[in-house]
Write a structure and sequence with these properties.
By secondary structure, the chain is mostly helical. It has 10 helices and 2 strands. A two-stranded antiparallel sheet has the order 1-2. Helix 1 (9-16) crosses helix 3 (51-63). Keywords: DNA-binding, Repressor, Transcription, Transcription regulation.
Length: 234
């Protein structure tokens, strides 16, 4: 480090945990910019201390989130502080969700089969297509709610005899995935840098139940609207 607090390449690599070769690659790609760099000769330069955190952020975005460098560069060019806040927010929300999932009371596969009239082979197929995600400890609360709903469907006559199978649920997965991706993107975009990570996680948790009710009510309205539209076409 020189008297102005600037770092040599070796010092920058040591502090950031990013190799000198990777740092040079990031520099060539324009991910760090030129602001604050002091070049003393063709082969010698000093770098500002804030490059340490920026390098660590870029590495996390590249390795943990599998972002291409062109996307990362766009984030760095637009607002690096916001990008850092976004990463912190994502990590905190995921951390709380995983902690909640780890503490959630799971129900054994045997108990689920006892409670609900759903054949074991149906449960296995629901897991195969990604609708359920049981572990050796059993089913989490969301899994149990899905099994309960599937049991009620079957009790109401939605069974294989009429052509209803577990694969009908794939339509809902395919429809919900892009919706959830957009929901998460919008949520993070609105909260990053505006509220702290703990508050954001609380908002996500408190909004889960109203969101279920909203989606259910909107589905009912759309179902009726489509039935009326189909009748009008006939």
């Amino acid at each position: 480090m020189n008297e102005d607090g600037l770092l040599k390449m070796s010092e920058l690599a040591e502090r950031s945990g990013v190799s000198a070769g990777t740092i040079k690659h990031y520099l060539r790609e324009g991910l760090l910019g030129d602001d604050g760099i002091v070049r003393t000769s063709r082969n010698m330069a000093y770098y500002p201390p804030h490059f340490v955190e920026r390098l660590q952020l870029i590495k996390r975005l590249q390795e943990d989130r599998f972002m291409p460098l062109r996307v990362i560069k766009g984030m760095m060019d637009a607002d690096p502080e916001r990008a850092a806040a976004l990463v912190e927010l994502e990590d905190r929300i995921l951390e709380r969700a995983l902690d909640h999932g780890a503490r959630a009371q799971r129900i054994s596969a045997a108990e689920v089969r006892r409670r609900y009239d759903v054949p074991e082979n149906v449960l296995e197929r629901l897991a195969e297509i990604g609708v359920l995600s049981p572990t050796s400890r059993g089913y989490d609360p969301d899994d149990v709610a899905i099994v309960a709903a599937f049991s009620r469907f079957r009790a109401g006559g939605y069974d294989e005899a009429l052509g209803f199978t577990v694969y009908d649920t794939v339509r809902y997965l395919e429809a919900l995935e892009p919706l959830v991706q957009e929901e998460v993107r919008a949520l993070l975009d609105r909260l990053a840098g505006k509220v702290d990570a703990d508050r954001a996680a609380e908002l996500l948790a408190t909004g889960a139940e109203p969101l279920r009710e909203l989606v259910g009510a909107m589905h009912s309205k759309l179902l009726l609207r489509e039935l009326e539209r189909q009748r009008g076409r006939r």
